[in-house]
Amino acid sequence: MTKLILFLAVQISLLIAISSAGDDGEHFARTIDRKLLGLHKKEKLTHFKVYWHDILSGPNPSSIRIQPPVANSTTYFGGITMIDNALTSKVEMNSTLIGQAQGFYAGAAQKELGFFMAMNFAFKTGKYNGSTITILGRNTAMSEVREMPIIGGSGLFRFARGYVEARTKWLNFQNGDATVEYSCYVLHY
């Protein structure tokens, strides 16, 4: 017992000495074992399809313009819209709610309708409840198919990467409301 106490005292003294040593700014990072984060497992490829409902009209819109586009822009250039859009299992808005798309899109092209998209798909049901994927990229909204990268995720999608394909299924040119199919291909552990 005495040897154990002496051993622990020496270990604690060494730990204190090391942690109180001057920090020269070069030891803020360290290499760790991948297994500590579950990265030794085989990666999975998950595919899912959700429908993104961008509602700008009515008494309870899910998209709010927070910065108008520049004067005389025909492409929404400079405009910024915050979103909290429903993600559903089918095209119909009243189909099963899968989660929310939360983030913003901004008019980033002067000669075409092109958006910079930054959003999280926050899943609220089933196996992926509480998990997210993060999408960041260019969306040329009038193209038939738009591809944007998945740059990360959380929960079951921790360390995610991949891409989405967006296809407009419905668009109201009068008020801007739209439904877009997102086909998601996600590599994750």
From TrEMBL:
The keyword Secreted applies. GO terms for biological process: phenylpropanoid biosynthetic process. Keywords: Apoplast, Secreted, Signal. It comes from the Eukaryota. It is found in: Secreted, Extracellular space, Apoplast. One of its GO terms (cellular component) is apoplast. Pfam families: Dirigent. Residues 1-21 form the signal peptide. Its main location: secreted. InterPro entries: Allene_oxi_cyc_Dirigent (IPR044859), Dirigent (IPR004265). Belongs to the plant dirigent protein family. Dirigent proteins impart stereoselectivity on the phenoxy radical-coupling reaction, yielding optically active lignans from two molecules of coniferyl alcohol in the biosynthesis of lignans, flavonolignans, and alkaloids and thus plays a central role in plant secondary metabolism. Homodimer. This is Dirigent protein. It comes from Brassica campestris (Field mustard). The lineage of its organism: Eukaryota, Viridiplantae, Streptophyta, Embryophyta, Tracheophyta.
